[in-house]
Amino acid sequence: MSYSYYLILSSILFTIGVSGVLLRRNLIVIFMSIELMLNSVNLALVAISKYLHHVDGQIFVFFIITVAAAEAAVGLAIVIALYRHKETTNIDEINLLKG
Amino acid sequence: MAMVYQTTIWQITIWLLSAICVVCALSVILQKNPVVSAIHLVGCFFALAGLFLMLHAPFLAAAQIIVYAGAIMVLFIFVIMLLNLKKDPERFSAARLFRLPRIALLSLLLFSFLISIFATAFPFASYSRADTGRSVGDVATLLFTKYLFPFELASLLLLIAMIGGIVMAKKRLP
After folding, report:
1. Segments of chain A with pLDDT less than 50
2. Residues A58, B64: contact at Cβ < 8 Å?
3. CA distance B4 to B8
């Protein structure tokens, strides 16, 4: 039952992250919700790696943390470039490609 | 030796850490001020590091605090300060807020579905006596033998991300 508990917590965090991406309009808060989703997956991986008595799950979490760091750096650089261009972080106003 | 895992202190700690995690995650998506959101996300990461410790992953707990809470969130706060984002009273996207009842209902359905799966997923699982935890040495052994190639690729990825970040964010000279 304990392992299921970690998976339920992971799904709760993931759903909170998804609703953050869907509901907020500030781009930085959307990025933070994406990081929350990645962390919920980390928790699920560590719980299952413990269940299966393998360390491979923890290695994968290590790589997810690395990739999330790289993605956060590049994503925030894009946000800075966008802000320099349009002076807003409101995603409802970033609709230049809209038909 | 395995008795300690069923004690109430252990379970109370896990419940407390998950409560902190969920409350901080909810404040991330509900706060007006993006800096307050970032600080609550840091709290969420610390609670997750505690949960990693409960799951016998000490290396990941330390890596989570150092990398996620100590580097990525600092980067977020730097960018928030750089863009000088103020409090945002109309923080929910007006174009999307009308979908809130639908989103809430669907996430409730998703919860019940996932919980009904996960609550019966591990019928024979228990903390075994022989499993005393995974040390940093076990992680390092696997990382440098079986996963050596992804490890080197990850360093290349970080180099690419660093170059990309600098190029995208610097001022264009006229």
Report:
1. none
2. no
3. 9
